[in-house]
Amino acid sequence: MGYMDLALSYSNQMRIVEAPASGGGLSQNGKFSYGYASSAGKRSSMEDFFETRIDGIDGEIVGLFGVFDGHGGARAAEYVKRHLFSNLITHPKFISDTKSAIADAYTHTDSELLKSENSHTRDAGSTASTAILVGDRLLVANVGDSRAVICRGGNAFAVSRDHKPDQSDERERIENAGGFVMWAGTWRVGGVLAVSRAFGDRLLKQYVVADPEIQEEKIDDSLEFLILASDGLWDVFSNEEAVAVVKEVEDPEESTKKLVGEAIRRGSADNITCVVVRFLESKTANNNGSSSSEEANQVQTAVRNDSDHKNSTKETNQDHIVVHRDLDCSNTDNENLNQKPIAVTARGRSVSSEQSGLAVEKNQMPIAIRSGSEPKSSAKVPNQGKSTVHNDSPVAATHTTSLEISGSTGEKNRKPIQVHSDSAASKTSSTPSVFN
């Protein structure tokens, strides 16, 4: 084996064992925590995207989590990640009729994606597996083969169905629409696409729909956690195996890192993205008695030492806004693996994490964080604290997200609390003849 062969082998090994980009958080009401991890795996390009966000809407704390697996390039998956949840939470029936709002948001996002794709000569599409937490309800919606699995009462249950063209009802729907399903390494729509539902896929749109299947679950003491993942995980993990791994690791971020790392070790040939949401209802119920006692003690302490109480309250009630930069997961430059968070770009200028003032003090309305063009109002926030800017990925980040910052009064009934977004993934210049 020559020097170049050794170098190539070493490079491949480094890519395989490279730690995934990861992160996590806790809901403001303490009812759930979450973690995520994402890796290009053995592939040189990244077409997986994800989003985790917590919003305050009409007095409700709402959790929105999604995994989006692109094919034919990263364009469609990135578009869906950027627009689906925004379309959903602005739907007039989001709180009153969440299921119909989800269905409408999926179809509307698909329609807008197809319009945006008119300028592209190559076709692109994306799966979506999303979970919406509203009150005591968990609503899971999906198109494609990214899967959602829950652990309830210690047992694994799939709460989504992989949309494959060889399923009898899917095949019948495709053929009734004038399409066909044929074997080309696996069953494919038109001999090309291995999923029967997806966003995008303009040339196959008559047969490959973006109509989601929606499953509702009650959030109670028996519901322990939820796993959302792209097929890069499910290709090498059964539902039961994935649940067993998460059971062993209480911290959701660490559990996603373990799942992604183990999927790579097992030989997954695809990009791998995973989100875990842990429900803390049972712990809250078990600790009610001790919490009441602690609250009484805190009141007595406040009477004895009012100044200490004020300082404590200020720290406890401070809203925490976390911003993740866009990551290029294909970059394996080891010199940047431990790179510290750099400046956030706001309105075309760079500000350090100490200067940006994204942390919100007590009694101050949270600020909205959006990507795109000019903000609705300037980011003049009184009593600014230090921002928290995370770069949890071990890979170098070569794309900096341009953030707009505006006062929350510009968003009707909406209080963004935490937003964790993935990378602008690296894209390939050529489109494969068939899509996995």
TrEMBL record:
Pfam families: PP2C (PF00481)
Catalytic function, reaction form: O-phospho-L-seryl-[protein] + H2O = L-seryl-[protein] + phosphate; O-phospho-L-threonyl-[protein] + H2O = L-threonyl-[protein] + phosphate
Region (Disordered): 285-436
Residue ranges of every copy of the PPM-type phosphatase domain listed in the record: 33-279
UniProt key word Transferase: no
Biased composition (Low complexity): 285-297
Gene3D superfamilies listed in its UniProt record: PPM-type phosphatase domain
Cofactor: Mn(2+); Mg(2+)
Residues spanning the membrane: none
Enzyme Commission code(s) on record: 3.1.3.16
Name of the featured protein: protein-serine/threonine phosphatase
